[in-house]
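for the record, two folds in this file. i put them one after another cuz i was lazy. first one right below, seq on top, structure tokens after. the second one comes after a little note so u can tell where it starts
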Amino acid sequence: MVERGHPDLSVRRQCELLGVNRAGLYYEPVGESEENLLLMRLLDEQYTRTPFYGRRRMTEWLATVGHEVNCKRVARLMELLGIEAVYPKPRLRLPDGTSQDNNAKAHDATWADAGKHLPENVGDTPLEVIVIELKK
């Protein structure tokens, strides 16, 4: 991308043309430390046994096995691993954007109106066929 020994364009000009900050050229990303890799392995193993442990319980568990670490560090490592506690989360909104209360009222209204839209010649048609037709 950027040629440091270019005869015509300086590094500054090349960065300007590419829209890249010069400081980004010299930055070398640092990997995780050995201690963090060990903690991540322990967190992953414990998560496999107890997926309902969140960051606080994982921090307490690490303390019991001899690793005193901050709760924020555990949260960062869990996020890096892509793990989170498994527990019932609040369903304040339904997928269609309505709240549960509004959805219950709408559901009741739908069933109250269902009889108005039945065809006249229903005859021997099973009820589930009628309901499927109403949902369309």
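(here's the note) second protein begins now
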Amino acid sequence: MAGLRVVITDTSAIEALTLGVKKLPKGIDKGIKRITRNIRKTAIDRMKNSTPTGRYYKIGGKMHRASAPGEPPAVLSGALIRSIQTEFGPLWGSIVTDREYGPYLEDGTSRMAARPWMEPAIALHGEEITDDLSISIQEEMP
């Protein structure tokens, strides 16, 4: 029976690989943070910069134009925008709001069509997500 024996006399490749594996989580975390912050910014910018086409109504003595179904939520007080935060842990990132109505706007209800603000922001960053992770990992590698 023929055999093959490999003897490595230069351990620098193994040391580089070991160092790379140790730095991999740091690169992934860095990428997740970058992506999460970019998506949050896009969600906020879409709300701030959209031109609502929904109905007009009076609130607090002022006229307000609501968003139409499918548009980002129209900004009334800015409370939703101010409440959108990022949270991070090892190898994860999250975009959250403490406003009870945030998910209702995103998904709609039985009485109101959705005014999505998060999913479209994620969709706009689709290909970027993989690219950002790759770049962040490469930046950490030896």
